[in-house]
Amino acid sequence: MRVGVLSLQGAFREHLSVLDSLGVSSCKVTRPEHLDGIDSIILPGGESSAMVRIAAGTGLVPALSDRIGAGLPVFGTCAGLILLADRITDDSLDGFDRLGGLDATVSRNAYGRHRESFCAPLRITGLNEDFPATFIRAPQIVDLGVGVQVLAQLDDVPVLVRQGNIWGGSFQPELGSDTRIHEKFLHGLGAAPGPLSHV
């Protein structure tokens, strides 16, 4: 298993570090040719508007969208969730390619500005102990299609969801030392090294 990490902007280094700590082969993805040879991809937290602008004209987003449509497993965290959502509630990314694929409506920065960032314990399906989730200018999932499974909620609002091989989270599990969300995603692909830690 080789996991690509979209490395245009944001917390891609943190994702790469987590994957390295788990002994999983990984690589940076910034151009279409970097998609060759990867078995899944992670889209990091950061600035979704910056990501689509940096990617504009490279052909990366359409190529990656095609791969996801063909079944490439993907996990989008925070900004990555925005890129994956089929619908967003504002027009801030109009004119730029987005990935889509996740039957969800997402509101950008709905949890507030940077100074309103927070951490919250989450009960996540399949984990026995709460996960310490970090929300930084986080998007909110405001609507889901019938085929989307909710894995975690905060105040009755979905914050971690799955639609087949497409995973999306409002928070940033790459920040902090708890690797269980990454392990859970990788286990779903049959790629994680051993049992989940601290379940």
> How far is the N terminus from the C terminus?
23 Å
Strand content: 25-35%
CATH architecture: 3-Layer(aba) Sandwich
Radius of gyration computed on alpha carbons: 15 Å
Query: What oligomeric state is this?
Result: single chain
DSSP summary, beta strand count: 12
Q: Based on helices, strands and strand pairing, what is the structural class?
A: alpha/beta
Under CATH, the topology can be stated as Rossmann fold
What is the average of the pLDDT values?
A: 92
Shape: globular
* Name given to the CATH homologous superfamily: Class I glutamine amidotransferase (GATase) domain
Q: How do the strands of the widest beta sheet line up side by side?
A: 2-1-3-4-12-11-10
Largest sheet: 7 strands, mixed
Order of helices and strands: EHEEHHEHEEEEEEEEH
Uncertain stretches of 5 or more adjacent residues: none
Can you give the helix content as a percent range?
10-25%
Provide a count of the helices.
Answer: 5
Name of the CATH first level: Alpha Beta
Number of domain units: 1
